[in-house]
Amino acid sequence: MKENCWEVEVKHSHGDFGPLREKLKAMGGISCGNSLEVDTYFQHPKRDFAQTGEALRVRSKDGKIIICYKGSRQAGPAKVRKEIELIVSGPEIEPLLLALGFTSFKTINKTRELWKLDLPQLTCQICLDDADGLGHFVELEVMAPKEDIPRAQGFVLDLATTLGLGNREDRSYLRMHLEKSDH
């Protein structure tokens, strides 16, 4: 991943994915298949990620292990966060993090159907998610250099309107699960 990459994302709760798939096909979207993603979140030994808005996640997906750091949310109409992802060669990353003082505190499973929509100078990932215990959601995500963040925000917001997505959800799956646990 490039050093200057920022994730620009909007998420919407959604019901039936069928009509959305047809819209994506009509727009030239490409279906990239389905996967089961198992996300385990870790707490830092000295910093409270809940306070800083950061996240450290280890994802198991299609036989790959991906460690991801997400920075604090930046101001703007769409969610913008610094994102650093690394593919690691095996499951040893979790014991390594535990040995360094991190603690594992929540695992979230979701089935994700990935679509890509290529437009001039932008590629958008469209994720049709069935998040265990939470329901169905659509995420629109663009990776952009810092100088293109405003354009990327406008793009994902316009695409959400074009696709007829309603009920925007600004919370992460982790936040939704934690709030659900509090009730």
Description:
With 183 residues, this protein is of the alpha+beta class. It has one domain (5-182): Hypothetical Protein Pfu-838710-001 (Beta Barrel). Helix content is 24%, strand content 46%. It is built from 5 helices and 8 strands, in the order E-H-E-H-E-E-E-H-E-E-E-H-H. A hairpin with a 2-residue loop joins strand 3 and strand 4. It is globular and about 50 Å long. It starts with a strand and ends with a helix. The model has no long low-confidence stretch (mean pLDDT 92).
Largest sheet: 8 strands, antiparallel, barrel
Tally of individual domains: 1
Secondary-structure content class: alpha+beta
Strand content: over 45%
Q: Percent helix among the residues?
A: 10-25%
The name of the CATH superfamily reads Hypothetical Protein Pfu-838710-001
CATH names the topology as Hypothetical Protein Pfu-838710-001
Mean pLDDT: 92
CATH architecture: Beta Barrel
Low-confidence stretches: none
Count every beta strand, where a strand is a DSSP E run of 2 or more residues. 8
Helix-strand pattern: EHEHEEEHEEEHH
Question: In what order do the strands lie side by side in the largest sheet?
Answer: 1-5-4-3-2-6-7-8
Q: What's the CATH class, please?
A: Mainly Beta
Shape: globular
Q: Distance between termini? A: 38 Å
